[in-house]
UniProtKB/TrEMBL annotation, chain A:
Membrane topology: Multi-pass membrane protein
Lineage: Bacteria, Pseudomonadati, Pseudomonadota, Alphaproteobacteria, Hyphomicrobiales
CDD domains: TM_PBP1_LivM_like
Protein name: Branched-chain amino acid ABC transporter permease
Transmembrane segments: 24-43, 55-76, 96-118, 125-145, 178-198, 229-253, 259-289, 301-321
Length: 338, 409
């Protein structure tokens, strides 16, 4: 929590996240990108699937990062936006027979609208109160999806099974690999757009609000508009991630989008480093792989082992992956000097 | 001339050999996951998360195959049982099952738990032609050999059980006003549908109230008070153990005595009736297919003695009142039987064929008279139940063994 509190409560957040530190340098970016492109060619389908999920959760964490790290607002309700995105894609694909790629922008737009509207009442709340309001959204969502009125569309408690797309144009690759590269392209596009958003006038407005709301409004920033806008953008990206998740998992059900998911995403953000966008992927790796490691150590106590590992991370590197990256950078700089 | 004769003789011998070898000297045949020395079986269970109470089923199965291996394995092969945590989350279930299939290379996935998790992996496993054996859920849709020939159920379906209650009520208590308390998820809704189907045309006039609760609610006392106000004659309790115990207790506290029927999921003497209070549970009705580990009437039963010996030796410290231990034992025993029937032909196709050829098989833990039967068109192994009434500190069975197969839609 400490990292979040730092960003959200410390008033002069000069140290917090300078703009450039929000991204990686060009060299590092290219290395990461090359790794993401080449690795799937060498591994089994199951690992490609895991990497796809890594990107998808990475996107969802990124979305939360824009909201919390960028505009300083809390959300424990990301699972609700994720669910709306997933169901939008699934319903459009299965009931309307729409192409999977086309469902994603629609999922994004619907979630943007949903997030923007939810941002209106949320304006009056801040800090823990906002967290609680979004928490309510996350707990309500699985029940709403079960409602009898929507059952024809949502499949009710039984959920909906989604057909996995084949590679187009007769490309010689499996469904998993195609979906991975598709997800990768979407992720990179959203990542670049997010970085540019935070570097733009709107991004500066977000950060001004995060650092000091009163000062921001004195400078002429429309606080209400930008706060709800941040909610909308965050929800929209989460929705796209949810849609991709539905296609990758081939199934949506209310029980897949409980508060646990929202907390996982929150966890991923903290572990990755609040406000540091590349950390989203690290955070996503943490929420996917660390439970498996914990299970490998002890099946009966997997939850407890996970807790210990999480505690160690928070205790040793409270700023998450960002801190590790900074330390690594300093080491490299030192080595260069010598 | 001589050479043609030789060829004829040789070919005759070859043909004769080929004919006998398929019959008598069956060749050893294997798919991925089976060898001369081992059979790899995969499983997913919610060891963490909201349904972690069911994790004991996976642990029981793991212990059961340890016992089998200690006794020399199945047809000389050891069973390697690999079980992973899916936290009752469909995305995690897909990830873990793909790990089992593509990384651990198991022969089959056995007894994965939960309707959402099983739905999530069904398409994948069927596309890859990997058996999804004896799934641990009571949904009706697992009995669908035409569309999903690689998926087979195990326990009686919730809908068929609910139909049995409805039919019993129509016969024994015609005209009774019925209220239903159900859990708002796939489990509860299946019971609701089964009850309505069972009542048929009389559903609208018989069922005067449907009240649902969420698993996340701490107590359901409020719902009981609400139901009592409608004053039904019969209360159907389609709730998981904790809530069933609360319901039985609360109705007694209110001094209200409707005829109560509780789902088979919540009939444990140790974890439902005792906490609810034996005096409050008198006269309660339900239906069963398995023996209860805590019911004294089975103390001398040879099957349950074997079960108790297994628990003492391989799961020391396990809670014998937990129904999951009985369940896991019965399911694992069914798999062991099927693997034994496979003989040396451990291909996935044969495994599925054998799983669909069980004839009157009775695991140690099933009620006397309840038998497992499957066929190429019947993928619902256990389809029989018997009505029972709670008296004193145990269940008393009554009536006939009722078969309640519900065809899948």
């Amino acid at each position: 929590m400490s990292a979040v509190e730092d960003v959200v409560t410390e008033s002069p957040a000069v140290e917090a996240v300078p703009k450039r530190a929000m991204t990686l340098g060009y060299g590092t970016s290219l290395v990461v990108l090359a790794a993401l492109i080449i690795i799937p060619l060498l591994v089994k389908n199951f690992i490609i699937f895991q990497m796809t999920m890594l990107l998808i959760y990475g996107l969802a964490v990124l979305a939360l990062n824009i909201l919390t790290g960028g505009s300083g607002q809390f959300s424990l309700g990301q699972s609700a936006f994720y669910a709306v995105g997933a169901y939008t894609s699934a319903i459009l694909m299965e009931h309307a027979g729409m192409n999977y790629a086309l469902t994603l922008p629609i999922a994004g737009i619907i979630c943007f609208a949903f997030g923007f509207l939810f941002g209106q009442p949320a304006l009056r709340l801040s800090g823990v109160y906002l967290a609680l309001a979004t928490f309510a959204l996350a707990t309500a969502m699985p029940q709403l999806l079960k409602l009898g009125y929507f059952e024809y569309w949502t499949g009710g408690v039984q959920g909906l099974v989604v057909t996995k797309p084949d590679a187009p144009f007769g490309l010689p690759m499996g469904q998993d690999m195609w979906l991975y590269y598709f997800t990768l392209v979407v992720t990179i596009a959203i990542y670049i757009a997010s970085v540019n958003l935070l570097r733009s006038r709107s991004g500066r407005a977000f950060m001004a609000i995060r650092d000091n709301e009163i000062a921001a409004s004195a400078m002429g920033v429309d606080v209400a508009l930008y706060k709800t806008l941040a909610f909308g953008v965050s929800a929209g990206i989460t929705g796209v991630a949810g849609g991709l998740g539905a296609i990758a998992v081939q199934f949506v059900a209310p029980d897949g989008y409980t508060i646990t998911l929202a907390i996982s995403l929150f966890l991923g953000m903290v572990v990755g480093g609040v406000g540091w966008l590349p950390g989203s992927i690290v955070g996503s790796a943490f929420i996917i792989f660390v439970p498996n490691i914990a299970e490998g150590i002890s099946k009966g106590l997997s939850g407890a082992v996970f807790g210990v590992l999480l505690f160690l991370v928070i205790f040793l590197v409270p700023h998450g992956a960002r801190q590790v990256a900074i330390i690594a950078q300093q080491l490299v700089a030192k080595l260069k000097k010598n | 001339m001589l050479s043609t004769l030789r060829i004829a003789a040789a070919s005759a011998a070859v043909i004769a050999f080929a004919a006998t070898s398929t019959a008598a000297f069956a060749q050893k045949k294997y798919d991925t996951g089976a060898t001369d020395a081992e059979i790899k079986i995969g499983n997913i269970m919610p060891y963490s998360g909201p349904a972690s109470a069911y994790g004991v089923i996976g642990k029981t199965e793991e212990a059961y195959f340890k016992m089998i291996n200690d006794q020399g394995g199945i047809n000389g092969r050891k069973v390697t049982f690999i079980t992973y945590d899916d936290a009752y989350s469909p995305p995690k279930a897909v990830e873990q099952v793909r790990k089992l299939v593509e990384s651990d290379e198991v022969l089959a996935v056995f007894n994965p738990l939960g309707t959402p998790s099983n739905t999530a992996i069904q398409k994948y496993l069927n596309a890859k032609k990997i058996p999804q054996l004896f799934v641990a859920t009571g949904a009706t849709k697992w009995n669908d050999p035409k569309n999903f020939p690689w998926t087979i159920g195990w326990q009686p379906s919730y809908q068929s059980e609910a139909q049995i209650y409805a039919k019993w009520l129509m016969k024994e208590k015609p005209g009774a006003k019925v209220a239903i308390l159900y859990q708002n998820d796939d489990f509860g809704k299946d019971y609701l549908k089964g009850t309505k189907d069972g009542f048929g045309a009389k559903a609208a006039s018989s069922i005067i109230m449907e009240e649902s609760y969420e698993v996340s609610e701490p107590s359901i006392d409020g719902h009981i008070v609400k139901i009592k106000a409608a004053n039904p004659d019969v209360l159907l309790i389609y709730a998981t153990p904790k809530f069933a115990a609360q319901t039985i207790k609360k109705t007694a506290e209110l001094g209200w005595k409707p005829l109560q029927i509780v789902t088979n999921v919540s009939i444990s003497v140790g974890s439902v009736m005792q906490p609810a209070g034996f005096e409050n549970a008198q006269g309660l009705l339900s239906a069963a297919y398995a023996k209860d580990g805590t019911d004294p009437q089975w103390a001398g039963d040879p099957g349950m003695k074997k079960w108790a010996a297994f628990v003492d030796k391989y799961m020391p410290g396990a809670d014998k009142t937990d129904n999951g231990v009985v369940y896991g034992y019965g399911a694992a025993q069914t798999l062991a039987k099927v693997l034994e029937m496979c003989g040396n032909d451990l291909t996935r196709a044969n495994l599925m064929k054998q799983a669909a050829s069980l004839k009157d098989f009775t695991p140690d833990t099933l009620l006397p008279g309840v038998k497992i039967n499957t066929s190429a068109t019947d993928f619902a192994p256990i389809a029989q139940l018997q009505m029972q009434r709670f008296k004193g500190q145990k269940w008393e069975l009554f009536g006939e063994i009722i078969s309640g197969d519900v065809p899948s839609e």
